[in-house]
Write a structure and sequence with these properties.
single chain, eight-stranded mixed β-sheet, globular, 10 helices, alpha/beta
């Protein structure tokens, strides 16, 4: 089969990765990379053995598909222009800045009957795929995602930048409307929130607690999922997963601690985790999730099947992220309408020239969240 003629639009961190992987795929012919910054596009083009162009519009009529890895601010404009030209898209997450922009992209892709895939790469993570089939009807989910500050994606906050990965995974598992959102967040290095925590309630009865930080001293990407028949723990960073499957006696609620004899208590203390709450490590094949994502994109174009993470899924994740950001903006840190609100919770220290005496604290001013 003739390789798919593809371009990568945007040569930042993820664009470089996409270009390198695409150039090595037999199913893909990387025609060009596009970026307005000459040094950046030339560097990526040389590494991927592709042509470098300043304006992606030059490639319309020459390519059959594109990967958009520009800053999020440009996803909508670039995506709408390429879809209008009949070009299927893999758009890096988030799909766009707002739910309204996402709706535009989804509607146009449907109208043109084009594949629209979103780069929620954790859906291709082998740790997740190893346990996903056993996680039907979850009832409690806890997700934590932390990292140091990368100085990338500064046009969005941590909710759209990092937490949205977990929001997409959670939505794919619950398959249920969100009926309640509580959240708070703090900006540390700019106008957008850099730390955030949200509690989500679903119509199915599931509750999810989600935390993210991009100013952390530790790297962590973990999720725990509890269902009526067991639980699973996923480490997205190490590609490791484990499951706990309670015995039928536990599931039927026939095991009663209060009725055990002293001898039985001693026995079960030794065998609780090998007979009643058996834990197993899940086998996962070592794969490159972004490479798998690209292959899924090619397959969607060739077969007409929906990609694993389509535009609707990307739109739903953005819509939920927007609700979380709105809650963050509304949070009153002092419990008053005139106190500190939103992500800008930390007051600026007063500066008094010509004195070494401690400054008198000033009343906090209300600031709008970014």
């Amino acid at each position: 089969m003739t390789p798919l003629r593809l371009a990568v639009i945007g040569c930042g961190h993820l664009g470089r990765i996409h270009a390198r992987l695409a150039s090595a795929q037999p199913e893909i012919e990387l025609v060009a990379v596009a970026d307005p910054v000459e040094a950046t596009r030339n560097s990526v083009a040389q590494e991927a053995a592709a042509r470098a162009v300043a304006d992606y519009r030059e490639l319309i009529g020459e390519i059959e598909a594109a990967i958009i890895a520009t800053p999020t601010t440009y996803h909508h404009a670039v995506g709408m222009e390429l879809l209008s030209a009949g070009i299927p898209l893999l758009v890096e997450k988030p799909l766009a800045l707002t739910g309204e922009q996402c709706n535009d992209l989804v509607a146009l892709a449907r109208q043109k009957n084009l594949a629209l895939q979103v780069g929620h790469v954790e859906r291709f993570n082998p740790a997740f795929t190893a346990v996903a089939a056993d996680l039907r009807d979850p009832k409690y989910i806890e997700a934590t995602r932390t990292s140091g500050y990368t100085f990338r994606s500064t046009d969005i906050g941590v909710v759209m930048d990092m937490m949205i990965h977990d929001l997409d995974v959670i939505l794919s598992l619950t398959k249920s409307p969100v009926i309640g959102v509580e959240a708070l967040g703090i900006s540390v290095l700019g106008c957008h929130e850099d730390m955030a925590s949200a509690r989500l309630t679903f119509a199915s009865g599931c509750v999810a607690q989600v935390s993210a930080s991009r100013v952390s001293f530790h790297q962590r990407r973990t999720m725990s999922i509890f269902t009526a028949r067991g639980s699973a723990s996923i480490d997205f960073a190490t590609h490791e997963a484990s499951q706990v499957k309670p015995s039928e006696e536990i599931l039927r609620r026939e095991f009663r601690v209060d009725r055990l004899s002293a001898a039985e208590r001693t026995y079960w203390k030794e065998h609780l985790f090998d007979q009643l709450l058996a834990r197993s490590t899940c086998e996962s094949k070592p794969i490159n999730a972004i490479q798998e994502e690209q292959l899924d994109f090619v397959n969607a174009i060739r077969t007409g099947k929906s990609p694993r993470v389509d535009g609707v899924a990307g739109r739903d994740a953005v819509a939920l992220a927007e609700r979380i950001v709105e809650c963050i903006a509304d949070h009153a840190w002092d419990g008053t309408t005139t106190g500190r609100h939103g992500a800008l919770a930390m007051p600026a220290p007063p500066i008094i020239a010509g004195t070494t005496q401690p400054a008198t604290p000033q009343p906090h001013e209300r600031r709008k969240a970014g």
